[in-house]
Amino acid sequence: MGKDELITALYESLGESCVTAPDVAHVEIHGNEVLGIHLVPGLEIEAQERRDGIEVEIRVLAGARIEQPVRICFGLIPESGVQRIGMQTRLEAGARIAILASCTFPNAIDILHAMNAEIEVGPGAEYLYLERHVHGREGGVRLVPKTKATLAEDARLRTDFELLRGKAGDIDIDYEATCRARSVLEMAARISGRGRDRIRIHEHAHLAGEHARGVLTTSIAVREQAEAEIKNTLIASAAHARGHVDCKEIVQDQAVAHAIPIVEVRHPKAHVTHEAAIGSVDSKQLETLMSRGLDEDQATDLIIEGLLSPAYRGR
Amino acid sequence: MQSMDETPATSVSHPILEIDDLVLDMGEKRVLDHLTLEFWPGHVHAVIGPNGAGKTTLAATIMGLAGYTQFSGDIRFGGESLRGLGVDQRAARGITLAWQEPARYEGLTIRSFIGAGARDRSEAALADVLARVGLDPAQYLDRAVDRTLSGGERKRVELASILAIEPRLVLMDEPDSGIDVEALNRIFDAIKHLKARGATVLLITHSLAVLRQADHAFLICSGKLMKKGLVGKIEEFFGDACLPCSHQNEPEPGKRDRDLRSVAEDGQ
Ligand SMILES: Nc1ncnc2c1ncn2[C@@H]1O[C@H](COP(=O)(O)OP(=O)(O)OP(=O)(O)O)[C@@H](O)[C@H]1O
Ligand SMILES: [Mg+2]
Fold this sequence. Notes:
- The structure holds two protein chains of two kinds.
- By secondary structure, chain A is mainly beta.
- Chain A has one domain (19-308).
- Chain A is 10% helix and 56% strand.
- The longest helix of chain A is centred in the C-terminal third of the chain and has 12 residues, at 296-307.
- Chain B has helices spanning 55-63, 87-92, 110-115, 123-132, 137-140, 151-165, 181-196, 208-211, 231-241, 253-267; strands at 17-26, 29-39, 44-48, 72-77, 80-81, 95-98, 169-173, 200-205, 216-221, 224-230.
- The longest helix of chain B is centred in the last third of the chain and has 16 residues, at 181-196.
- The A-B interface holds A 282-285, 287-296, 298-299, 302-303, 305-309, 311-312 and B 1, 63, 65-66, 86-88, 90-92, 95-97, 99, 102-109, 112, 116-117, 142, 144, 146, 161-162, 165.
- The complex binds adenosine-5'-triphosphate (ATP) and magnesium ion.
- Residues 26-27, 29, 31, 49, 51-57, 100, 206 of chain B line the site of adenosine-5'-triphosphate.
- The site of magnesium ion has 4 residues of chain B, from helix 1.
């Protein structure tokens, strides 16, 4: 396939068409090859092709406010292969950007996708990063996303990881963040697993500055023989730091879920809470939908769809 | 779900729902005690009774909710016994229930909730049922059916979803609880709309205002049928004998039995 055909195939697998608007920055990466790149003022992206992946450097210049969400599309159309992404993102002071990253492996049978990301959000800067995965029906993807983030004073970072279409495969998420004074961190993951999917999420955030705030939210639905393990840690070590850890797991069939929220407070004026709910779908919710004519599976799907929907921002 | 205009012609002269000598125990407690009731197609019936009378239990048993399937006697809908049928199978026959305290759903929009099971999922149809219960579709369709809805809003969304599925039998458990005066009239209009579409409505209540929406009523107390008949008659009796209730809240056993017996005899 030529580059243009590959770009089309990547977007098609996401159920979308190619980005053409001139004010929308976008990058398309297939395997270790940069297929397309389009930038807007204030945004710099450099990509280096490696043997089995790519190194990307993203820089948002001081004070630049990128209006339109930037589209990054990673993927592999073939059934097998390796894609290792190294991604360094730096937002300078007062910059603002939203990135919508799509990772698509529509035909995966044996694919490894490893992501090593480093994020620096400068003073007063604001970064929204949504990573959406679309996998094939067969699974066959091993995902190893690792992220290390630092939030400077007054910075904001929101990350969303979403895997709702196709089989999850084997996921091993490892996110870490350090938050300086008055910064705000939100990390959310929404994953639906079935078959023999294995989902591991370890998030670790340190509220190190005064008035720093952090929320780690994980919503998982596992069915059939899928397994999920969530271990989210939130440490607060400065006055008026406030945090919350929230794990919701819905378990159906023979699936198994573990949730281990760890909260640690190292300052008498800091405050951290946690909430973990693991269980089946609520019977009253189920029976209500069934009394409207849905069968049990349809009702369960709808309840889970709601729970994992991005519109729901929790408390 | 069968449409209302497919109601068999015979049902005009036969009850749509028959509760036949129904007995249901919860642990040690007899909650429904040899209840025999008949409901007629296209009628609005009220089941009225004080707190703890067994009204919600009756609705749950007709709907077939988990925990309410072990009973003696029978429940027939359109002549067919409902025994052994699941909630969705009963819904497929046209039965539905509006909960006294409806469930909340994180992230599920009112659009999806009302659309579930709706006959017509078009934007216009969903907007129409919301407007019928007095909620502005532009403001509400994309909101979640979660904790952010007030109690009254949630009850109205429940009723809108029931209008959308065009049922044959609606069990409404305390449709007025948490509803303000203005919205109450919308709810009453919705009940009239259901009736006009040929549905049978079973209003569960202890409020006289709701009772007055019915054509016919049953008074139940401690799981027993006390009286049945036209609404005016039941209203008068309920007002005299049940407001205030003469035997609730741990009465002396002898007095309670005497009261119940005299009421029951009067009700024959
Ligand atoms: N699971 C249960 N275990 C034991 N007792 C129960 C159970 N469920 C209901 N009951 C009892 O059965 C009786 C009837 O309850 P039900 O909820 O049907 O009353 P109700 O008429 O709907 O009252 P209200 O007007 O307060 O809604 C009550 O005394 C209640 O305490
Ligand atoms: Mg009740």
